[in-house]
């Protein structure tokens, strides 16, 4: 979806595009460090046409890295309250303090829903956090990751070693390239699970929210295989979610469910996941079939889970009434 289309969609929702154009700013001594104007000096404020009229801010201790890759602006700063923060094109991707809520949920919701996952593909996820979580499964034999931006991997290895440790698992093969193209070359029925850890549908991740991509994912999965994709916020993006649910219901002939979690530094403080399975052995996403052995020697995370547990797994599928009405109306 084009940036302008996203903004238009949001305007149709009764809100207004603030004209910020998807940029965010750090203001120091009255001078902007990274694009636009004014919020609070010494603070990072996250603005985007995807969440018009609001901007969550974090106090900046120090900017640690600023670069421009082939695809996007990449920045790392030390915040006062959330540790180091990774920002792509002005949008927060990871903070050291709350990354566990996102990485654990996007990984364990799908992988705990099928018995003995063996072959896993991660699209995006160049910070390594999802790999770290996949490494907890001793049943897994192959972990492929396709990340478009090598700079994200390099920056994570330098500034986020607790996430990038995921790359040290010998089962991991890193492919730098376009996830859409990668999937087209995958033999049919290869993977038990695909995890799409993308940024928002403005910029390099745009195609990962479109129907042809979901068709390729379905083709790459074995019968009864599962996909979990980043699926935005019920508070901000119900129209986007509605579209994704509708596309997924056309393509995935097993289960199609929406789950969500809290991530304080993401816009609106929550983010969702689309979980689908292909036709084949039935998958009941709401009732996990695997327990994670936190002491497993395969486990690169080297520590207990911080967020995920079987109770929060099932609870993640309970939706507020306004979202339930819209998402369930897509079930037909
Ligand atoms: N609005 C930001 C959503 C970012 C989701 N992807 C984060 C990548 C963490 N591995």
Automatic annotation (TrEMBL):
Task: List keywords of the entry alphabetically.
Answer: Polyamine biosynthesis, Transferase
InterPro entries on file: PABS, PABS_CS, SAM-dependent_MTases_sf, Spermi_synthase, Spermi_synthase_euk, Spermidine_synt_N, Spermidine_synt_N_sf
Q: Does the keyword Transferase apply?
A: yes
Which Pfam family, giving just one, matches this sequence?
Spermine_synth
PROSITE patterns referenced in this protein's UniProt entry, alphabetically = PABS_1 (PS01330), PABS_2 (PS51006)
The answer to whether keyword Transferase applies is: yes
Tell me its family. Belongs to the spermidine/spermine synthase family.
Q: What is this protein called?
A: spermidine synthase
């Amino acid at each position: 979806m084009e940036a302008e289309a996203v903004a238009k969609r949001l305007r149709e929702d009764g809100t207004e595009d603030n004209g910020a154009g998807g940029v965010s700013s750090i203001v120091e001594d009255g001078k902007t460090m990274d694009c636009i104007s004014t919020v609070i000096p010494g603070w990072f404020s996250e603005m985007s046409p995807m969440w018009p009229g609001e901007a969550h801010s974090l106090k900046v201790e120090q900017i640690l890295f600023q670069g421009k890759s082939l695809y996007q602006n990449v920045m790392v700063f030390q915040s006062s309250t959330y540790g180091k923060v990774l920002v792509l094109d002005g949008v927060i991707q990871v903070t050291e303090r709350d990354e566990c809520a996102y990485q654990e949920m996007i990984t364990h919701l799908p992988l705990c829903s099928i018995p003995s996952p063996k072959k896993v593909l991660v699209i995006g996820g160049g910070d390594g956090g999802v790999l770290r979580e996949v490494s907890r499964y001793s049943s897994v034999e192959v972990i492929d990751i396709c990340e478009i931006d090598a700079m994200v991997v390099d920056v994570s290895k330098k500034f986020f070693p607790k996430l990038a440790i995921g790359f040290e698992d010998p089962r991991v093969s890193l492919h730098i390239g376009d996830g859409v193209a990668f999937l087209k070359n995958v033999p049919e029925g290869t993977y038990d699970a695909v995890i799409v850890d993308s940024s928002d549908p403005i910029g390099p991740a745009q195609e990962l929210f479109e129907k042809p991509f979901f068709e390729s994912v379905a083709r790459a999965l074995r019968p009864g295989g599962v996909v979990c994709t980043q699926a935005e916020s019920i508070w901000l993006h119900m129209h986007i979610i509605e579209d994704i649910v509708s596309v997924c219901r056309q393509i995935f002939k097993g289960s199609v469910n929406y789950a969500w979690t809290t991530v304080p530094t993401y816009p609106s403080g929550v983010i969702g996941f689309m979980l689908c399975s292909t036709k084949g052995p039935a998958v009941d996403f709401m009732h996990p079939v695997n327990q994670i052995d936190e002491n497993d020697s395969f486990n690169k995370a080297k520590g207990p889970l911080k967020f995920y547990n079987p109770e929060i797994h099932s609870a993640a599928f309970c939706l507020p009434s306004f979202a339930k009405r819209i998402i369930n109306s897509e079930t037909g």
